[in-house]
Q: What sequence folds into this?
């Protein structure tokens, strides 16, 4: 058992065995990413990532020589998975990324000369730290300081990071919501300016990241703090920004109303100690997307949105919602308190939310 810890968190015996096997072959290896971040925050972490000076073939040879099973899980990007005592540990070569031609993945990767070069390509400062039981913490970008300040900050130029991989923008918001952090001002500005880059990202990937944001119970905060990005992720929400409902029953415009409904839905679950229901979070998130299409004004000047719950599934529900939820939903409309049930099909979204 390892007697050295990072902020009181001891690495698992399995991960130490992997580290020592790599080092026994003359390679340099470090704990990186989420395990380091979570240890510094005093949070439990279930995933261990390592980076290593060797090529993936060298790492594989070293591990197998120590009777540790290896899966060639990401060799295109220099990564393998070590399976030790039923624990999966990701081991990736120090690398430099080539050009990102699809807004998601580097066209090529090169072996980096040092750990510092590898850390420089990472997304956020809180994820760009490395630790070793003997050599200690390497933190070139003040990730530990940003943890103390509760900030999500891009490594280097945030626009460059987001142009490399547009999905990093939603990851920034997901981290901020999950950790209850703010996004550093320059990084936040880059989110708004680079938001259109999400158009090139598969809806499935966007949907998975949105689900991660909603699962924190803080999706309403994300809507209010990062509206350009959220509307780029779900263009159906954009028409609601600034849309006056002209109703004595609504103090906010359509977009702000949706955000506040989502906030209350999340807070009610979190205050009761429950994990937010994803059906409820999605229902709150999309329940009024068709209001602008249904807006009418009566003789007294009051606004109405007749038929918006029915129109939403036919014209506004994004296609990735159907992909994500091929099942029956029961969703309560937060405005009318009426419950509707419908079935989502991959080719014909039909959720009355």
A:
């Amino acid at each position: 058992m390892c007697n050295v810890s990072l902020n009181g968190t001891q690495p698992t015996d399995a991960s130490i065995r992997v580290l020592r096997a790599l080092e026994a072959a003359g390679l340099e290896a470090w704990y990186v990413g989420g395990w380091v971040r979570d240890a510094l925050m005093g949070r439990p972490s279930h995933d261990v990532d390592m980076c290593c000076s060797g090529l993936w073939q060298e790492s594989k040879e070293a591990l197998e020589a120590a009777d540790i099973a290896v899966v060639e899980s990401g060799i295109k990007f220099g990564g393998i998975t070590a399976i030790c005592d039923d624990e999966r540990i990701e081991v990736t070569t120090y690398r430099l990324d080539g050009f990102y031609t699809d807004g998601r993945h580097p066209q090529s990767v090169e072996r980096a000369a040092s750990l510092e070069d590898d850390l420089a390509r990472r997304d956020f400062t809180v994820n760009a730290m490395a630790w070793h039981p003997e050599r200690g913490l390497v933190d070139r970008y003040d990730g530990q300081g940003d943890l103390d300040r509760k900030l999500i900050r891009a490594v280097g130029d945030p626009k460059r990071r987001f142009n490399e991989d547009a999905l990093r923008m939603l990851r920034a918001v997901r981290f901020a919501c999950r950790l209850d952090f703010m996004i550093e001002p320059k990084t936040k500005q880059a989110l708004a300016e680079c938001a259109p880059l999400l158009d090139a990202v598969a809806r499935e990937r966007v949907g998975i990241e949105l689900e991660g944001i909603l699962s924190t119970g803080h999706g309403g905060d994300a809507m209010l703090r990062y509206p350009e990005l959220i509307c780029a992720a779900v263009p159906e929400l954009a028409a609601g920004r600034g849309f006056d409902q002209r109703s004595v029953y609504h103090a906010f415009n359509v977009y702000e109303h949706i955000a506040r409904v989502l906030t209350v839905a999340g807070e009610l679950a979190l205050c009761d100690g429950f994990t937010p229901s994803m059906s409820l979070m999605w229902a709150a998130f999309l329940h009024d997307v068709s209001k602008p299409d249904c807006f009418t004004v009566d003789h007294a000047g009051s606004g109405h949105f007749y038929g918006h719950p029915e129109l939403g599934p036919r014209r506004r529900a994004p296609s990735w919602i159907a992909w994500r939820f091929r099942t029956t939903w029961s969703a309560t409309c937060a405005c009318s308190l009426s419950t509707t049930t419908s079935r989502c099909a991959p080719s014909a979204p039909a959720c009355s939310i």
Observations:
- Residues 254-271 form the longest helix (18 residues).
- The chain has 15 helices and 15 strands.
- The two ends are 52 Å apart (CA to CA).
